[in-house]
Structure formats: C-alpha cells, structure tokens
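Example 3.2
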Amino acid sequence: MPDQVADSPSIRTGAFKTVVVFLCALLTLMFWMNDWKSPTSSGNHHPTESAEEDDTCPPVHPQLRTAFGSKSTTIRAWPSQGGFYSLHPAGVVELDFLGLDRFTEAPRSDDPTEEDALCQRMRAMGAEWFRHEDDIDKWTPPVIRDGRRVGKQQLWFGWPENGGVWVLELEEFEADRKGVGRIYNACNMEERCRVLERLGATFFGKAADCRHTKDIDFPGRKELEPNR
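Structure, written as tokens:
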C-alpha cells in the first residue's frame, strides 16, 4: 500500500512540474547573465567600457600620420628610439602647430631626423608615448581617494607667441567637471592660451622650469623671464 501511494500519478506529475519550473528558471538566469556581459547589449554592461569605447582613437595606417575618424582626428609619429607618439584628439590648433593639413591625410616620413623633430612638436601638444600598439587601448581604472573617484592625470600645453608655456594638469574627472574640452574650440594658439589661463593653467616663462616641458625643444620656442 505505501508503494502505491509513493508511485501515484499525482506525485509524478508534481515532480515533473517542479523539474520544468527549475529548468525554465535556469535558462532565464543564463540568458540574463549573457545579456549583461555582452558589450552590444542594451543591458547594464560596465559603464567604464562604454565610456572608453566612445573615446576610442580612430585606426591609423602604419604609413600615415593622420587618421580622420567619424568624430575626431588622431596624429602619430614614430621616433628613432622606438614605439610611437599619439596625439588624440587633435583639432585645428594642433594640426596647424604641427604643420599638417586639416583635411588631407599626411604620409609618414622616411627621414628619422624629420620624424624625431615632429615628435618633439607633438610632445609640446601633449602627445603620449606608447611602446606597442596594444598599449594605447589599455585603460587605467580610477582609484578612490578620500572618498572621491580619482582618474588618470592629463596635460594640456599652450605656447604663446611672445614666449613661455601655459601648463594645465588635471585628473580626468576634474577635467570633465571643468569642461576642459572647450580648449579644442580655440581657433589659434593665442586663443588656446587664453582658455588655458581661464581654466587655471600655470604659466612658465621658461619651459625648463616645468617638469613636464623641461626636455621639450622645437624650433621657434621662446622663453621669457618669470615676471614676463
């Protein structure tokens, strides 16, 4: 009699329903996790990934120094020491300062001396040096300091006609709060310098007095006394 109760149709049906419900729940969970991990999903993937994707440099052909993307321009140069310098984004002022056409791609130079000279001018505009191509896509996560999120330090330079250099150094989140992107709306170097000054940049009469510019040299660079 007990065996008949344990093997009754109602108990078998209940057990079957339990298994079906469990499998449905498992499939739903697996689908949700896959959707969350997918970078193209409309779900809540990691916000820093999307932020980095929005600011990705356009690809640069190995024989061209300029790349015009859908929203920005990148400039590269290859020094004799190895690796490469990348300047992104590059606007009107950067292109004019480097002597590059604003609308036509510029070829890479085969002359190491010419390439090194361009690298110096690119550094004067804040270009970064990378050892390998893959390094440019590496993202440095922010750290928490005094309860506040702190990101990578960033630099902007301005070289006024009468000499000296304006230097603005901010971490990336502070730069966002200050709206530093307005620098790229400047039409010429003098206007860029005025914007940097309004944003709190420091002026150095001699580039050698600033640790970020002391070893940057290029033809036409002028120096002033500290009191200008």
